[in-house]
Amino acid sequence: MASVREIIQLCHHELQAIGIPDARLEAEVIVMNVMRMPRQDLFAHQEDEATTQHEQDIQGILDRRGTREPLAYILGYREFYGVNLLVNSDVMIPRPETETIVEHALFMALMGMESPQLVIADVGTGTGAIAINLAIHMPAARIYAVDLTDPVLNVASYNIRSHNVADRVTLCQGDLLEPVPEQVDLVVANLPYIPTGRIPTLQPEVQWEPKMALDGGQDGLGLVRRLMSQATTKLKDQGIILLEMDPEQMAVASGMALQNFPDATVTVEQDLARRDRILVVTQGLE
Length: 286
Description:
The protein has 10 helices and 9 strands. The chain has helices at residues 4-17, 23-35, 39-44, 52-66, 71-75, 99-110, 129-137, 150-162, 222-234, 250-260; strands at 77-80, 83-86, 119-123, 142-147, 169-173, 184-189, 235-244, 265-270, 276-282.
């Protein structure tokens, strides 16, 4: 029987050999999940022996990773802003950089947006990651979480119920802001923004994710254009839009925002890697 330390080393080497980024971290996560050990126990029990069943289960995961299937799909969950979310191949896997949009929304709420009970639209909700975290940290807010297809909304619904925020998050099915039944104070959106032609060049793991959640059209901004247009009637006079996108798209998207909201203030926020990541459109800023 191999020890926990040996199993982690073997996983690390096997993942590294097939070019997996962050191979050591993934090895630890795999062992933690199969052996049901919290991280602190992983290091406190390095010489404990794994069972034959543990070794078989770990090898099964490594075999799937060998096809470059994302670890989040294999394990069935992904952590995002401190909460675990069900993920499957119907939804895009939440990224760490998207946490920036949550942090900025919470900051703006703390700074005192006008409405005592904020109305928020999370457009392209996917797993529900953004909506759930806003609901947890802003219990007075009412949130509409919008997506297009039943399989995606089924995942979001499960996650919303799992985190006990169903009384604050309403799921809506439809095209961007169209199904939202009232004007909102805040629009948050992580829409598909990858240009169609670039998708085949992305890393193998991304190829497993639903193309609908990635493909932003010829220049990557097709859905952003339509969202901006719809927002002219859905956003309150003092409202704010937060959009995640590629740093290279910020200049064009800023011009697009000012075409639709000539009196707005448009700024850009950076993610943890200090890359331009969030376009901020603020109506009625004095």
